[in-house]
Amino acid sequence: MGLDFSVIPKYLDIVLLGAVWTIAITIGAAVVSFFGGIILAIIALYAPKIISWPFRAFSFLFLGTPLLLQLFLIYFGLVQIGIDVPAFMAGVIGLGLHFAVYNSELFQTSILAVDKGQNEAARTLGLSRLQALRKVIVPQAVRDVIPPIGNNMIALLKDSALVSVIGVSELTLSAQRAIGSTYRPFEFYVLVAIIYYIINLVMEAVLRHVERRIQVSR
Amino acid sequence: MQRVFPFFLEAAWTTILLSVLTAILGVSCGILGTAARLSRFLVFRFLGAAYVSLFRGTPALIQLFILYFGGPQIGIQLDAFEAGVIGLGVNVGAYMTETMRGAIIAVDKGQAEAARTLGMSRWQAMRKVILPQAMRLMIRPLGVNINALIKSTALVAAISVVELTYTAQRYIGSTYKPFEMFLIAGVLYMIIIYIVGLGVAWADRKARIT
């Protein structure tokens, strides 16, 4: 069986719709992972042990196991405990939590790296501990880790392909659907690879632009 | 639980085998990629850069699918395990290329210049002066690559290689005990990663003493 790329145009709209879902899930999971990462970092650093310990155990488990396995756990596990979430939500939660744990590691180091005087000055000015964190420390810490967080988000885009296995109709699964009716895996997977690559290039360009702006603002 | 455990152990063995073979192929591709990226010839530099960009810029899962499902269309017939090792190995090699190149670039420029001034050829300077220093720098980051590699072997579950994740998925489906199955597979993954981590730490210590 040779190659025949002429089958693609007929299915292009399905595949492009899948690309829209891939972008949506990437953005959704990126938002979850960003704020989840900050919250996890603050809990790990400042919460009393009795609260932070279970979160640490959770982080440890999520850092040491494959994302695919975690997706299976979340998708089937939520159903098991009676929460029936649509596959898309399960995908956003799974991807978001996975990367929140990675982002949390970055946030923790950068929060600790913010000069101690900043916190002391904020407290002296009458801000509460939480206010000082929210208005003084975290904004500075976030600015310092934008490049590595951005790299995590680009990794997130590529890992979003995994949610196809729990039935989210994103780019990879829509390609599989098209392959199901055309039996042309090579053509469609190459097409999908090209689309991922383009989204990836756009994200890299945006990240570089943001990095430059941070440099300027210093 | 006791009934399924032996199957998990068998699957863990497959995951270990996959990881080892993938790591060997990945390091080989990494060495080739690094050599290409640092070459004097523009063609090789371009090929190396294209390799890294394409394989890091697209999902590993899609690369696996192109190889395993699309391969037969262009005359490449592989079974799932072979496709898994080759697909993941070439993918990881792109990440390792960046790690190795980074370590080599991180060695002080004066070292190469001094070696050349002493009459060494480019290759001699690389082999006797730069590489021994770069090796030390790359052990830790390569350890991180290998850690990620072990977790990414889970992807081959999608082309139905019976490894840990595939086994967990199968028993989640048949026992309706997602948390238990996740824990068994998860702990086995973490044991593998922990042992590899010990090996990396040992190599790192060793390299620092000499």
Q: Give me the number of helical elements of chain A.
A: 8
Report the principal-axis shape of chain B.
flat
User: Which percent band covers the strand fraction of chain B?
Assistant: under 5%
Low-confidence stretches of chain B: none
Q: Kindly state the mean pLDDT of chain A as a whole number?
A: 90
* Euclidean distance between termini CA atoms of chain A: 58 Å
N-C termini distance of chain B: 48 Å
Described by its quaternary structure, the protein is heterodimer
Structural Rg of chain A: 21 Å
Using the coordinates above, name the CATH class of chain A.
Answer: Mainly Alpha
Assign the CATH topology of chain A. Answer: MetI-like fold
GO molecular function (chain A): transmembrane transporter activity
Transmembrane segments (chain A): 20-46, 58-79, 85-102, 186-207
Protein name (chain A): Amino acid ABC transporter permease
Pfam family, one (chain A): BPD_transp_1
Please tag this protein with its features:
A: 218 residues; mainly alpha; MetI-like fold; 0% strand; B: 210 residues; 81% helix
Describe the structure.
Chain A: Keywords: Amino-acid transport, Cell membrane, Membrane, Plasmid, Transmembrane, Transmembrane helix, Transport. The complex is a heterodimer of chains A (218) and B (210). Chain A has 218 residues and is mainly α. Chain A has a single domain, classed as MetI-like (MetI-like fold, Orthogonal Bundle), CATH 1.10.3720.10. Chain B has 210 residues and is mainly alpha-helical. Helix content of chain B is 81%, strand content 0%. Classes of the chains: A mainly alpha (218), B mainly alpha (210). Chains A and B meet through α3 and α8 of A and α3, α7 and α8 of B.
